[in-house]
Design goal:
The protein is α/β, with parallel strands linked by helices. About 60% of the residues lie in helices and about 15% in strands. Strands 9, 11, 12, 13, 14 and 15 form a 6-stranded mixed beta sheet that branches. It has a 5-stranded antiparallel beta sheet with strand order 4-3-7-6-5, with helices on both faces. The longest helix is centred in the N-terminal third of the chain and has 80 residues, at about 185-265. The chain starts with a helix and ends in a 7-residue tail after the last helix. Mean pLDDT is about 80; it is low at about 635-640, about 680-685 and about 870-875.
Length: about 900
């Protein structure tokens, strides 16, 4: 515990003891005061009780005097005594037992009267008990009875007597003797005695109460006196203990510290304080000892510092020698000039730089004489200007050695000035840069040669850039030509293919025998295979040219997977292999993505798996992450909503097929490439499927990996980020899905604009099957005319037609008031998305790519027609 806390505790306890003693003495004084007050109260109460008795005696005296003398003055005194006692008149200041004696004797009272107050009120104000007050009230009541006898005597003197009821109503001659008899009768003395008895009892009661209270107060005084004695003794004992404690903890350590200080003053630094207490004295001792140790360490350090400084001085001398040697090597020298004293000092190597002997006298004249005559005026001017301004400066000039050699030097100068700017000292560093000057001249010559080479190189680069731009333009032209060629070829192939597939579908709906039905199915299957090859080639072309765009629409994954499971499940049953699916979407079956391209990816990978697996099993698993995260704004989302909730869809397709050789794994995603050349001959295919799949997955911001063991099977794994729809989008999708699947549009009047007779025949057959009427136009101009002449509900518009194209025809129809809202579906063999956008901008509601199936045409007609009823389209400009 620290000394400060000890002192505070001692001081606090001492104050508490003194305070307690003072409070106890105060209580003793208070109780003594109460004792005196009790005695004073008793005496005052007894005096007032005696005053009550005195008033009764004074009333008797006045009544008898009046009865004996008949003097009306005594009757008035009698009434005054009653009024003063009852508080009806002010009480005279000298109202005592002999007051009326002086008044009867004729002495007047000139003193100021006190306020009127009854005698009982004065006694009650002293704080007597209820019992004591009751005695006095009884005495007063008895005195009032005595007053009644006295007034009865007064009435006899005035000729008034009591009747049979005791009332003073009977009149007669005054009877003085009767009045005297009443005042001296036994009844009068009994009534007088009744007044004195309660007054006596009052005195006894107040003596008893006062004695009890005095006893209690004296008991308290005795207790407080005993307590005060204990507190005084405790205070004395505490003071003594505190003195001895402080002597041990404070006084003796300070005396000991004085002795130790004397030892230290005599030179003994090894002495130490031995106090081991944990208080401030102990901490001071520790700090004092630490200070002594620090002093000893400092003295030791000073000794080491002196030794070190001596070594540094020697090292500085060595460094100075090294600096001079370095200046000689670097052909440098320095000078110092004190302008106030004229003293100038040159370094050892400076005369050598100026071409002077080593014993040359330092001075400005000596220096300026060495400067080349052509540079001398410039040097003197620059130095004079800077010395006048007090600014440091650098300059280059030439010096002429005594042997006639010309050397180039550079001088760097620093000035020391007083507060007014006047130069006091100047210091300079001079370096011979002759060799450097020669090197700069050579470098300048080399620079000119390099600049010449650069100019020649720039001309060559410009020529090469022009050649590259020409090659780039030629490549873009070739790529455009390739795209135009593919588009034309697609149109020319798809047009007859549309006729083949369409006619095959029409034939399939007619009565056929088994052989015919088989042949028609084969024809349709072969046509579909040819269409898939064409689509793959077009997709690859789009990918290479960067023209492939993805849709971003909401769809149900489970509904997309159902036909795939059914198709490949049936194929697995035919092949005698097992097809297993494991779908875990965590209630996230609705996603925003390109349903067609995702189906294409799955179809490509599953087709490959079935192509190369003859036994065992093929498994398809889809796992959706159960922890969606806030996504960043992607290109697909930029057209929709930024920062959508994103999830990860992992697709895994595993087979037990022939597998892939390790040396072919890195090339399986290359276009027109397969794992082995024999595969094309054995299994068929263009080698585009996996390349397209990889590019589609990359476009969808996913990645695809393959693991394979030759002879055991292959596993493809795709990690695909997918956007999740919000609640509003889910609701809209649900409403759309809940629409009736079979819609009765009624009998529509359809305008079919198609120049190809076969395609027109197929479309008309489909429309007739749907229950619609058809009006055919062979070109766009005829279509515009027929639309104006007929009530048309929907238009099927071929894009490429003679006379007027479908695009121009659509624009002209949209320009009319009648055609502003009519549904128009474009029919085209062009498969490029950018071309479809051109058709939509012309005013077509949607585009159907040839060849198309019967159900595709029916679904699109229903969708477009119903949409036009819900939200009519505004005509394009």
């Amino acid at each position: 515990m620290s000394i400060l806390i000890r002192v505070i505790i001692i001081f606090t306890l001492l104050m508490l003891l003194l305070g307690a003693t003072t409070v106890t003495l105060g209580f003793i004084y208070n109780q003594s005061t109460k004792l005196t007050q009790q005695e004073t109260q008793r005496l005052n109460a007894l005096k007032l009780a005696d005053r009550l008795r005195q008033s009764s005696d004074d009333l008797t005296r006045m009544a008898r005097s009046y009865a004996a003398t008949g003097d009306q003055r005594f009757e008035q005194y009698f009434n005054d005594i009653l009024d003063i006692r009852n508080g009806l008149k002010p009480r005279p200041e000298n109202y005592n037992s002999i007051y009326w004696d002086f008044l009867i004797a004729g002495t007047s009272d000139n003193s100021s009267p006190k306020p009127a107050i009854s005698l009982l009120s004065l006694i009650e104000a002293l704080g007597v008990s209820d019992k004591e007050l009751a005695f006095l009230e009884e005495a007063k009541s008895n005195s009032d009875d005595l007053v009644f006898l006295e007034r009865k005597a007064f009435a006899a003197l005035n000729g008034q007597f009591t009747n049979e009821n005791g009332n003073l109503t009977r009149k007669g001659p005054p009877d003085q003797q009767l009045a005297i008899d009443i005042l001296f009768s036994a009844d009068y003395h009994d009534a007088k005695a009744k007044i004195m008895l309660p007054i006596k009892n009052f005195g006894l009661e107040i003596d008893r109460r006062t004695a009890n209270e005095v006893a209690v107060i004296e008991q308290r005084i005795n207790f407080l006196t005993f307590l005060a004695a204990i507190l005084v003794l405790s205070t004395i004992s505490f003071v003594l203990l505190s003195f001895f404690h402080l002597r041990d903890r404070l006084i003796n350590p300070i005396l000991y510290l004085a002795d130790v200080s004397n030892e230290i003053r005599s030179g003994n630094l090894d002495i130490r304080l031995q106090d081991t207490h944990t208080d401030e004295i102990g901490q001071f001792g520790v700090s004092f000892n630490a200070m002594l140790e620090r002093i000893q360490e400092t003295l030791s350090s000073l000794h080491d510092e002196i030794v070190t400084r001596r070594e540094l001085s020697e090292r500085l001398d060595n460094n100075n020698d090294n600096l001079l040697r370095a200046q000689r090597v670097a052909k440098m020298g320095h000078w110092f000039w004190d302008l106030t004293t004229g003293y100038e000092e040159w370094s050892e190597n400076l005369p050598n730089i100026y071409g002077l002997p080593r014993d040359a006298k330092p001075g400005y004249d000596t220096f300026i004489a060495c400067v080349h005559p052509d540079d001398r005026e410039r040097v003197e001017k620059i130095q004079a200007e800077n010395l006048e301004r007090g600014t440091k400066f650098s300059l280059g000039y030439r010096v002429v050695h005594q042997n006639g050699e010309i050397h180039h030097v550079i001088s760097h100068n620093d000035l020391n000035c007083d507060p007014s700017g006047k130069v006091l000292q100047a210091t300079g560093l001079v370096q011979d840069v002759t060799d450097l000057k020669h090197a700069e001249d050579k470098l300048e010559q080399s620079k000119k040669e390099v600049e010449e080479l650069n100019r020649n190189l720039e001309n060559k680069i410009k020529q090469r850039t022009k050649a590259l731009e020409k090659a780039k333009n030629e490549a873009e032209t070739a790529n455009s030509a390739k795209s135009d060629f593919l588009a034309t070829m697609s149109h020319e192939i798809r047009t007859p293919l549309n006729g083949m597939i369409g006619m095959a579908q029409l034939l399939k709906n007619t009565p056929l025998n088994t052989d015919q039905e088989h042949k028609i199915s084969t024809l349709i299957s072969s046509s579909q295979s040819l269409l898939e090859i064409i689509n793959d080639v077009l997709d690859m072309s789009k990918i290479e040219s960067g023209a492939l765009e993805l849709e971003h629409r909401i769809f149900d994954l489970t509904e997309m997977l159902a036909p795939l499971e059914a198709t490949f499940g049936s194929l697995a049953s035919e092949r005698g292999i097992k097809f297993v699916t494991d779908i875990e979407l965590h209630d996230q079956k609705l996603i925003l993505s390109d349903q067609t391209r995702l189906r294409q990816v799955l179809n490509n990978l599953l087709s490959n798996a079935f192509k190369f697996t003859s036994e065992g099993q093929i498994s398809l698993s889809l796992l959706m992450s159960n922890r969606p995260q806030q996504g960043n704004k992607t290109s697909a989302q930029s057209r929709d909503k930024a920062h959508r909730l994103m999830s990860n869809l992992q697709i895994r397709i595993e087979d037990t097929g022939i597998g892939i050789a390790p040396d072919r794994l890195n090339s399986i995603f290359d276009a027109f490439s397969q794992a082995d050349n024999t595969i094309t001959r054995k299994f068929g295919g263009t080698g585009l499927g996996l390349s397209i799949t990889q590019n589609l997955v990359t476009l969808m911001r996913g990645n695809i990996k393959v693991n394979s063991t030759e002879g055991k099977g292959t596993t493809f794994t795709i990690d695909l980020p997918v956007a999740l729809p919000d609640e509003e989008e889910k609701k809209d999708f649900s409403n759309q899905q809940n629409r009736p699947q079979t819609v009765d549009l009624g009998r529509l009047s359809v305008l079919l604009a198609e120049d190809n007779p076969v395609n027109a025949m197929i479309a008309k057959a489909f429309l007739a099957k749907f229950g619609h009427d058809t009006i055919r136009a062979e070109n766009g101009e005829e279509a515009v005319k027929l639309f104006a002449e007929n009530d048309i509900d929907l238009i099927l518009m071929d894009v490429h037609m003679p006379v007027m194209s479908g695009i121009i025809a659509t624009e002209q129809i949209r320009a009319t008031q009648k055609g502003a809202n009519v549904p128009i579906i474009g029919l085209t063999a062009e498969a490029f998305t950018d071309r479809h956008e051109v058709f939509r901008k012309a005013g077509m509601n949607d585009v159907l790519t040839k060849p198309f199936k019967e159900e595709q045409l029916k679904a699109l007609i229903e969708e477009i027609y119903l949409s036009s009823l819900d939200s009519p389209q505004i005509a394009s400009a």
